[in-house]
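subagent[fold] <- orchestrator: predict structure for attached chain, return C-alpha coordinates only, no commentary.
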Amino acid sequence: MPSHALISLDSVIVAVTDDAPRVLVMTDGDAQALPSGPLDLLAHPTLERGMRAWVAQRTGLTLGHVEQLYTFGDRFRDPREAAGGPRVISTAYLALVREGRPADGFESAWADWYGFLPWEDWRAGRPALLETRIRPLLREFAARLPENHARACQCFGLEGWPWDPERSLERYELLWEAGLVAEARRGRETAATVPGRPMARDHRRILATALGRLRGKLKYRPLVFELLPERFTLGQLQRLVEALAGQPLHTQNFRRLVANAGLVEATGQQIHATGGRPAGLFRFRREVLHERPAPGVGLPKAVREA
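subagent[fold] -> orchestrator:
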Protein backbone atom coordinates (compact mmCIF):
# COMPACT_ATOMS: atom_id res chain seq x y z
CA MET A 1 0.00 0.00 0.00
CA PRO A 2 1.28 3.52 -0.82
CA SER A 3 2.50 5.39 2.26
CA HIS A 4 1.98 8.89 0.85
CA ALA A 5 -1.00 11.09 -0.02
CA LEU A 6 -1.99 13.24 -2.96
CA ILE A 7 -3.48 16.65 -2.12
CA SER A 8 -6.27 17.73 -4.46
CA LEU A 9 -7.51 21.34 -4.67
CA ASP A 10 -11.23 21.46 -5.47
CA SER A 11 -13.50 24.44 -6.03
CA VAL A 12 -17.24 24.97 -5.74
CA ILE A 13 -17.89 28.01 -7.96
CA VAL A 14 -21.44 29.29 -7.54
CA ALA A 15 -23.54 31.77 -9.50
CA VAL A 16 -27.27 32.52 -9.48
CA THR A 17 -28.74 33.15 -12.92
CA ASP A 18 -32.43 33.55 -13.75
CA ASP A 19 -33.22 32.69 -10.12
CA ALA A 20 -31.43 29.34 -10.38
CA PRO A 21 -28.32 28.55 -8.31
CA ARG A 22 -25.70 27.14 -10.65
CA VAL A 23 -22.30 25.55 -10.21
CA LEU A 24 -19.38 25.38 -12.63
CA VAL A 25 -18.59 21.79 -13.60
CA MET A 26 -16.25 19.88 -15.87
CA THR A 27 -16.42 16.50 -17.56
CA ASP A 28 -14.63 13.66 -15.82
CA GLY A 29 -15.12 10.42 -17.73
CA ASP A 30 -18.86 9.78 -17.87
CA ALA A 31 -19.69 12.12 -14.99
CA GLN A 32 -19.50 15.79 -14.10
CA ALA A 33 -16.96 17.04 -11.59
CA LEU A 34 -15.91 20.19 -9.80
CA PRO A 35 -12.84 22.00 -11.16
CA SER A 36 -9.83 20.52 -9.40
CA GLY A 37 -6.15 19.67 -9.68
CA PRO A 38 -3.29 18.40 -7.50
CA LEU A 39 -1.17 20.62 -5.30
CA ASP A 40 2.22 21.24 -6.91
CA LEU A 41 4.66 21.58 -4.01
CA LEU A 42 7.09 23.63 -6.12
CA ALA A 43 4.77 25.78 -8.24
CA HIS A 44 2.03 26.55 -5.67
CA PRO A 45 3.19 28.70 -2.74
CA THR A 46 -0.19 28.26 -0.95
CA LEU A 47 -3.16 25.95 -1.28
CA GLU A 48 -5.45 28.81 -2.29
CA ARG A 49 -3.09 30.06 -4.99
CA GLY A 50 -2.80 26.52 -6.28
CA MET A 51 -6.61 26.25 -6.46
CA ARG A 52 -6.85 29.57 -8.29
CA ALA A 53 -4.20 28.44 -10.76
CA TRP A 54 -6.06 25.21 -11.53
CA VAL A 55 -9.36 27.06 -11.97
CA ALA A 56 -7.77 29.50 -14.40
CA GLN A 57 -6.01 26.70 -16.28
CA ARG A 58 -9.05 24.44 -16.55
CA THR A 59 -11.93 26.92 -16.89
CA GLY A 60 -10.35 30.21 -17.98
CA LEU A 61 -12.03 31.90 -14.98
CA THR A 62 -10.23 34.30 -12.64
CA LEU A 63 -11.78 34.13 -9.19
CA GLY A 64 -12.36 37.01 -6.81
CA HIS A 65 -13.26 36.30 -3.18
CA VAL A 66 -12.94 32.67 -2.09
CA GLU A 67 -13.02 30.90 1.26
CA GLN A 68 -11.87 27.49 2.34
CA LEU A 69 -14.81 25.13 2.67
CA TYR A 70 -13.60 21.84 4.19
CA THR A 71 -10.97 19.13 3.92
CA PHE A 72 -12.11 15.69 2.74
CA GLY A 73 -9.85 12.74 3.50
CA ASP A 74 -11.91 9.56 3.86
CA ARG A 75 -10.19 6.39 2.67
CA PHE A 76 -11.12 5.23 -0.81
CA ARG A 77 -13.06 8.42 -1.55
CA ASP A 78 -11.13 8.53 -4.80
CA PRO A 79 -11.04 5.48 -7.12
CA ARG A 80 -7.32 5.96 -7.66
CA GLU A 81 -6.69 4.80 -4.10
CA ALA A 82 -8.85 1.70 -4.54
CA ALA A 83 -6.80 0.90 -7.64
CA GLY A 84 -3.59 0.95 -5.59
CA GLY A 85 -2.76 4.64 -5.85
CA PRO A 86 -2.12 7.12 -3.04
CA ARG A 87 -4.77 8.33 -0.64
CA VAL A 88 -6.35 11.53 -1.99
CA ILE A 89 -7.01 14.36 0.46
CA SER A 90 -9.05 17.24 -0.97
CA THR A 91 -9.07 20.81 0.28
CA ALA A 92 -12.21 22.42 -1.14
CA TYR A 93 -12.91 26.12 -1.64
CA LEU A 94 -16.14 28.06 -2.15
CA ALA A 95 -16.31 30.97 -4.59
CA LEU A 96 -19.26 33.22 -5.46
CA VAL A 97 -19.24 34.82 -8.91
CA ARG A 98 -21.59 36.34 -11.45
CA GLU A 99 -22.15 33.87 -14.22
CA GLY A 100 -20.46 34.54 -17.52
CA ARG A 101 -20.05 32.51 -20.65
CA PRO A 102 -17.27 29.91 -20.15
CA ALA A 103 -14.15 30.88 -22.05
CA ASP A 104 -13.61 29.31 -25.45
CA GLY A 105 -11.35 26.28 -25.50
CA PHE A 106 -12.27 25.07 -22.01
CA GLU A 107 -14.45 22.08 -21.21
CA SER A 108 -16.45 23.75 -18.44
CA ALA A 109 -20.14 24.55 -18.18
CA TRP A 110 -22.69 25.90 -15.74
CA ALA A 111 -25.13 23.36 -14.28
CA ASP A 112 -28.25 23.72 -12.13
CA TRP A 113 -27.30 23.06 -8.50
CA TYR A 114 -30.68 21.48 -7.75
CA GLY A 115 -30.23 19.06 -10.63
CA PHE A 116 -27.70 17.34 -8.35
CA LEU A 117 -29.65 17.82 -5.09
CA PRO A 118 -33.32 18.09 -6.14
CA TRP A 119 -34.76 17.35 -2.67
CA GLU A 120 -33.23 20.61 -1.44
CA ASP A 121 -35.52 22.90 -3.50
CA TRP A 122 -38.70 23.79 -1.58
CA ARG A 123 -39.47 27.08 -3.36
CA ALA A 124 -42.61 25.60 -4.96
CA GLY A 125 -43.53 23.67 -1.82
CA ARG A 126 -42.53 20.30 -0.44
CA PRO A 127 -40.83 18.35 -3.29
CA ALA A 128 -43.00 15.49 -4.51
CA LEU A 129 -40.02 13.13 -4.65
CA LEU A 130 -39.82 13.19 -0.84
CA GLU A 131 -43.11 11.31 -0.73
CA THR A 132 -42.87 9.27 -3.91
CA ARG A 133 -39.24 8.11 -3.64
CA ILE A 134 -37.27 9.17 -0.60
CA ARG A 135 -39.72 8.39 2.21
CA PRO A 136 -40.47 4.80 1.04
CA LEU A 137 -36.79 4.01 0.46
CA LEU A 138 -35.75 5.44 3.82
CA ARG A 139 -38.47 3.39 5.50
CA GLU A 140 -36.90 0.26 4.03
CA PHE A 141 -33.48 1.41 5.25
CA ALA A 142 -34.81 2.13 8.75
CA ALA A 143 -36.55 -1.24 8.87
CA ARG A 144 -33.15 -2.91 8.47
CA LEU A 145 -31.52 -0.52 10.96
CA PRO A 146 -34.24 0.85 13.30
CA GLU A 147 -31.85 3.30 14.97
CA ASN A 148 -31.75 5.23 11.70
CA HIS A 149 -35.47 6.01 11.77
CA ALA A 150 -34.97 9.12 13.92
CA ARG A 151 -32.08 10.25 11.72
CA ALA A 152 -34.23 10.00 8.61
CA CYS A 153 -37.05 11.98 10.21
CA GLN A 154 -34.73 14.69 11.51
CA CYS A 155 -32.82 15.09 8.25
CA PHE A 156 -35.77 15.04 5.85
CA GLY A 157 -38.49 16.66 7.95
CA LEU A 158 -40.65 13.54 8.29
CA GLU A 159 -43.33 12.66 10.86
CA GLY A 160 -43.65 16.15 12.28
CA TRP A 161 -39.97 17.05 12.30
CA PRO A 162 -39.13 20.45 10.77
CA TRP A 163 -37.15 20.73 7.54
CA ASP A 164 -33.85 22.43 8.36
CA PRO A 165 -32.34 23.90 5.14
CA GLU A 166 -28.83 23.89 6.62
CA ARG A 167 -28.67 20.09 7.03
CA SER A 168 -27.95 19.46 3.35
CA LEU A 169 -24.74 17.52 4.05
CA GLU A 170 -26.43 15.27 6.62
CA ARG A 171 -29.19 14.49 4.11
CA TYR A 172 -26.76 13.53 1.36
CA GLU A 173 -24.63 11.43 3.72
CA LEU A 174 -27.70 9.56 4.97
CA LEU A 175 -28.76 8.80 1.39
CA TRP A 176 -25.21 7.63 0.64
CA GLU A 177 -25.13 5.42 3.74
CA ALA A 178 -28.48 3.93 2.72
CA GLY A 179 -27.11 3.20 -0.74
CA LEU A 180 -29.71 5.46 -2.34
CA VAL A 181 -27.40 7.65 -4.45
CA ALA A 182 -25.59 6.40 -7.52
CA GLU A 183 -22.14 7.21 -6.08
CA ALA A 184 -22.69 4.63 -3.32
CA ARG A 185 -23.49 1.97 -5.92
CA ARG A 186 -20.50 2.33 -8.23
CA GLY A 187 -19.08 -1.03 -9.18
CA ARG A 188 -22.04 -2.88 -7.67
CA GLU A 189 -25.31 -4.23 -8.96
CA THR A 190 -27.83 -1.56 -9.86
CA ALA A 191 -30.42 -0.90 -7.15
CA ALA A 192 -33.04 1.71 -6.37
CA THR A 193 -31.68 5.25 -6.10
CA VAL A 194 -33.26 8.65 -5.63
CA PRO A 195 -33.43 11.27 -8.41
CA GLY A 196 -30.48 13.60 -8.85
CA ARG A 197 -27.50 13.65 -11.21
CA PRO A 198 -24.41 11.90 -9.80
CA MET A 199 -20.96 13.45 -9.85
CA ALA A 200 -17.45 12.07 -10.09
CA ARG A 201 -15.81 10.75 -6.91
CA ASP A 202 -17.42 12.41 -3.85
CA HIS A 203 -17.97 15.79 -5.48
CA ARG A 204 -21.72 15.72 -4.80
CA ARG A 205 -20.89 15.42 -1.10
CA ILE A 206 -18.65 18.48 -1.45
CA LEU A 207 -21.51 20.28 -3.21
CA ALA A 208 -23.91 19.43 -0.37
CA THR A 209 -21.33 20.75 2.11
CA ALA A 210 -21.11 24.03 0.21
CA LEU A 211 -24.90 24.41 0.10
CA GLY A 212 -25.19 24.00 3.87
CA ARG A 213 -22.35 26.47 4.42
CA LEU A 214 -23.96 29.06 2.17
CA ARG A 215 -27.36 28.69 3.80
CA GLY A 216 -25.85 29.07 7.24
CA LYS A 217 -23.91 32.17 6.26
CA LEU A 218 -27.01 33.90 4.91
CA LYS A 219 -27.85 34.67 8.54
CA TYR A 220 -24.67 36.52 9.40
CA ARG A 221 -22.71 37.44 6.25
CA PRO A 222 -23.90 39.51 3.25
CA LEU A 223 -22.51 37.02 0.74
CA VAL A 224 -25.52 37.29 -1.55
CA PHE A 225 -24.39 40.69 -2.78
CA GLU A 226 -21.38 39.04 -4.43
CA LEU A 227 -23.89 37.41 -6.79
CA LEU A 228 -25.84 40.54 -7.74
CA PRO A 229 -25.02 43.36 -10.15
CA GLU A 230 -24.02 46.67 -8.60
CA ARG A 231 -27.62 47.91 -8.88
CA PHE A 232 -30.57 45.60 -8.26
CA THR A 233 -34.21 45.58 -7.24
CA LEU A 234 -35.46 44.24 -3.92
CA GLY A 235 -37.33 41.61 -5.92
CA GLN A 236 -34.06 40.41 -7.44
CA LEU A 237 -32.47 40.26 -4.00
CA GLN A 238 -35.37 38.26 -2.55
CA ARG A 239 -35.43 35.76 -5.42
CA LEU A 240 -31.67 35.24 -5.08
CA VAL A 241 -31.95 34.52 -1.35
CA GLU A 242 -34.87 32.17 -2.03
CA ALA A 243 -32.81 30.37 -4.67
CA LEU A 244 -29.99 29.68 -2.21
CA ALA A 245 -32.27 28.91 0.74
CA GLY A 246 -34.47 26.67 -1.40
CA GLN A 247 -37.53 28.17 0.31
CA PRO A 248 -39.95 31.04 -0.34
CA LEU A 249 -39.80 34.19 1.76
CA HIS A 250 -42.61 36.44 2.95
CA THR A 251 -42.04 39.56 0.87
CA GLN A 252 -42.98 42.21 3.43
CA ASN A 253 -41.08 40.50 6.25
CA PHE A 254 -38.02 40.14 4.04
CA ARG A 255 -38.05 43.78 2.97
CA ARG A 256 -38.54 44.90 6.55
CA LEU A 257 -35.56 42.82 7.66
CA VAL A 258 -33.34 44.20 4.87
CA ALA A 259 -34.40 47.78 5.65
CA ASN A 260 -33.91 47.42 9.42
CA ALA A 261 -30.49 45.84 8.89
CA GLY A 262 -29.31 48.76 6.77
CA LEU A 263 -28.01 46.40 4.10
CA VAL A 264 -29.06 48.43 1.07
CA GLU A 265 -29.66 52.00 0.02
CA ALA A 266 -31.80 53.42 -2.76
CA THR A 267 -30.01 54.82 -5.81
CA GLY A 268 -32.90 57.07 -6.83
CA GLN A 269 -33.16 55.18 -10.11
CA GLN A 270 -35.86 52.87 -11.40
CA ILE A 271 -36.14 50.03 -13.84
CA HIS A 272 -39.23 49.71 -16.02
CA ALA A 273 -40.16 46.05 -16.31
CA THR A 274 -42.37 44.99 -19.19
CA GLY A 275 -46.02 44.97 -18.10
CA GLY A 276 -45.30 45.97 -14.53
CA ARG A 277 -44.80 48.99 -12.29
CA PRO A 278 -41.37 50.61 -12.18
CA ALA A 279 -39.13 49.10 -9.51
CA GLY A 280 -36.58 51.05 -7.52
CA LEU A 281 -32.91 50.19 -7.85
CA PHE A 282 -30.73 49.67 -4.78
CA ARG A 283 -27.09 49.07 -3.97
CA PHE A 284 -25.34 47.22 -1.18
CA ARG A 285 -24.17 49.43 1.70
CA ARG A 286 -20.63 48.19 2.30
CA GLU A 287 -20.44 50.41 5.37
CA VAL A 288 -22.60 47.84 7.17
CA LEU A 289 -19.55 45.55 7.35
CA HIS A 290 -18.01 48.00 9.83
CA GLU A 291 -21.21 48.86 11.69
CA ARG A 292 -21.93 45.44 13.22
CA PRO A 293 -20.43 41.95 13.28
CA ALA A 294 -23.18 39.86 11.64
CA PRO A 295 -24.96 41.71 8.80
CA GLY A 296 -26.87 38.84 7.19
CA VAL A 297 -30.18 38.67 5.34
CA GLY A 298 -31.54 35.71 7.32
CA LEU A 299 -33.30 32.46 6.39
CA PRO A 300 -36.97 31.44 6.54
CA LYS A 301 -38.06 29.47 9.58
CA ALA A 302 -37.86 25.70 9.43
CA VAL A 303 -40.82 24.14 7.64
CA ARG A 304 -42.81 21.42 9.36
CA GLU A 305 -44.48 18.57 7.52
CA ALA A 306 -48.14 19.25 6.80
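orchestrator: received. Logging for downstream: The chain has a mean pLDDT of 90. The domain at 5-115 is CATH 3.90.79.10 (Nucleoside Triphosphate Pyrophosphohydrolase).
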